[in-house]
Amino acid sequence: MTQGRFITFEGGEGTGKSTQVARLVERLRARDLEVVQTREPGGSQGAEEIRNLALNGDAGRWSPMTETLLMFAARSDHLERTVRPALEAGRWVVCDRFADSSRAYQGVGGGTPADFIEALDAAVVGVTQPDLTLVFDLPVEVGLERAFGRGLFETRFESKGLAFHERLRRGFLEIARTHDRCVVIDADGDMDTVTERVWAAVQGRLL
Predict the structure, then answer these.
(1) Is 60 helix (H, G, I), strand (E, B) or coil?
(2) pLDDT at position 60, please?
């Protein structure tokens, strides 16, 4: 049986990732591919419970180090119970956030040492690296305006301040620059235009 493909979506707040994840999943299924749509933190029962701990509450509830450990604990359960079984069964997995979010949010944004994050990644993720990572890029002010436009903060990360989100954007772009699996997606445009940018990247790399 052919191993499935693993696609991850990354980027800051308000970039429209979640909408585009759903659109890509629909398009892949239209090609008769078996696709698992999932997210991080979350994607399995245990990981969803950790998500509630990690994402809710005030902005300073957890230190960056504690956040890092929570995220990788959730990731371990997610990989064991959802991602790896799907890939081994030949299914495609499309995930809204993965390990690059830990590198950006807890690492570049929060200050957790990069070598500590990479050690955790080697231990927890190991060889289960994405085949393709789509990094959604958008000016920070635009993304936060979109997030505010929802009427409330969806997670505690959205309330961490402009400087934090500027670091996030720089962090994601640096990750994309240094990893060949990454494609930067210009998220500044109408939804249909961004959808076509995503599809072009998937076709060019995986189909």
Answers:
(1) coil
(2) 82
